[in-house]
Every structure is written in structure tokens, then in C-alpha cells.
């Protein structure tokens, strides 16, 4: 038995069988040469190639970023006005006393061909500009607006547009909130004008105190025309000659810039009074019955006339602002100081207390718009487009909008 195993072992070492054949192991059979693999085995070229050359590493994935402007020119805009974050809540006449952050442009680094001053991106170099440059820019804005508007609308056309923008007809609407008319909102207006000739704008909150300023800025910056107004709801018409393909270039702000530092609204002592008289007036003002209570995101268009009427009888007026943010009723106080006019006493306990002053004279001027306006040609005044007469069709339309 041992001899047989040795012979078998010697025979197995001498015979060569292909690796893929199991004939010998099962049946002790040696395959003929015709069944052998006639193709020569090729070496692994891929492994040799990897040994000779080192594979290059893939670059790291970089997500697309609007801040990456490598190889691109800055955006050029020919709009003849200074770029601001808010056109209704900031005034070029009021100069700040400091900045809260470095002068980082909210448009992004090197995205716009205008320098950011911390407050605005001026259309003209502020060092070289003056009243003459401001007048040239205003004349250019008026020229562009007249070219875009073209011939005035007839009464039938205006009423048809107002009816098409009603709440029962379309849901398209732009909301104007506490920041007022912002720069990016101009882009939203032009986007809506692609689909329709007019767009509905709903104004809420602090900007509604001065609706005349809101209407003026909308017409001045968007080059449109307001054809209907009821309370805080406006309808802005784009114009007869408006071409969506030739709309102005409006670079977008990528973030909200920090508001600059302005002088304090309320000082330690009121001008013309002593410290004791100031303290006594603040205590007395907080005890006065509230004239009105402001709702959050409400319409405040009748607040200034209400305060002027109250000043005919009372010396101090208190406005209840519970529920509003502190920065909102501070902005509200700053607007009331200039519009009424009046003297701010305190903002304590979420209240606005204002004093009419020692030598108060009622201000009688038509600087405020009525709650409801008619833009019919037969009702317009020669001095402007304000009128208090409203036809029967418009009253029915406004009642439908309120529903």
C-alpha cells in the first residue's frame, strides 16, 4: 500500500495538468494537448501601468458659490440712483455718526462696479458729486420713466387692470413690510411685470405711516405708475412701452447690511426743560390714557392726522405699542417726530409718549394721502393725482378686495 502511494505521488509530480481541468483529480485521466489552453497568458497591463505612473488625485469638490467671481467682470448697472438696502426707511439727508461693521459690500466682493460706503453704493463718486449731479440723476430718472410709461391709460383700461389685480382674480402679490421698499424688491417687481402689466403691493407696518413717501419711492425707483390705492394696498402699472427683455440690470444684495449708528432719539433732558421737569413729564405721559393701540403689521396711515387732532386738546399723547418690536416703534417715533412734528419724551414700557412743545402751531398742509384714491382723469386735480371722489364701480371693487 505504501509503495502504491509513493508511485502515485511521483506520477502526480511529473504530470502537468492545466489549472482549469479536474479530469485527473476525479478520474486519473491526463487530458491531451489539444485541450490545453493554446492562448498565451497576457500579463496584467493595468497593474504594470499603475506601477509605472502614479494616478492623479481628483480635485476636491467645490460647491457653486455666487461669491466666486474668478475670471468674471463686475456687474455694471446704469440705474440713475444710489443703491440702498431700503429706499423708504433711510434718507440721504440724515447722516449717521458711525458704522457697526467694516465697509463690506452686501453685493459680494467685486460683484458690482460701485463702491460701498457703509450706507449706500452711490451712482456718482461722492467726492466729485454735488447738487448738480443729483439734479442730473433726477432728470435722467424722469426721462426714463416718461419713456417707459408712454401715453396715459384711459379710464376703461385702468379699471380693467385694477379688476385683473383684485384678490378674487389673482394671488400675485408683493408684501412690503417693516424694511419698506428694499433693493431686492425692485427685482421682484420686474419679475412680476413679466407675467402681467400690473402688480399688487400690500404695505404693512411702520412704512405705512408715510404712504406718500412709499408711493413716491415706488414710482421713482421702479419707473412705474400707481393706478389704484386703497389703504395699504397699491397697484403698480409697468407702462405702455415696457419691454421685459430690456429691463434694467439690478444686482441683488446677498445679505442685509448692518444699520449704521444714528444720534439718540431721546436725550437725557428735553430741550428747554430741566432734569426734574423732564422726569415729571415722563411720569405724566405714561399715566395719560392711550390715544390708540397699534397692531403688529397693521396699517398706520391715519396715525399722524389722529395725533394732530389730539394735540389741539391735549399736550401729551401716548401710543400703546405692546406686541411690537422695540426697533419698530423706535422707527415709528422717528417718523412721527418729523411728520407731526412733535418732541419724543420716552419709549419706556413699550409706549411712545410725545409732547407737542411749548409753542405749538397746527400744521395744515396736504402732505398726506387719503385712504382711498381715484385716478380717473375726470377726477384728478391740476396739481396732482390725489382726489377724494370715488366712483360707484371703484367702491364695489374695494369692498370685494376687503372680503
Automatic annotation (TrEMBL):
Q: Does this UniProt record's set of keywords contain RNA-binding?
A: yes
InterPro entries linked: CAF1P_plant, RNA-binding_CRM, YhbY-like_sf
Which residue numbers delimit the CRM domain?
A: 151-249, 271-367
Its domain of life?
Eukaryota
Keyword terms, alphabetized: mRNA processing, mRNA splicing, Repeat, Ribonucleoprotein, RNA-binding, Transit peptide
PANTHER family to which the protein is assigned, alphabetical: CRS2-ASSOCIATED FACTOR 1, CHLOROPLASTIC (PTHR46247), CRS2-ASSOCIATED FACTOR 1, MITOCHONDRIAL (PTHR46247:SF2)
| Record's protein name | Putative RNA-binding CRS1 / YhbY (CRM) domain-containing protein
- State the organism of origin: Helianthus annuus
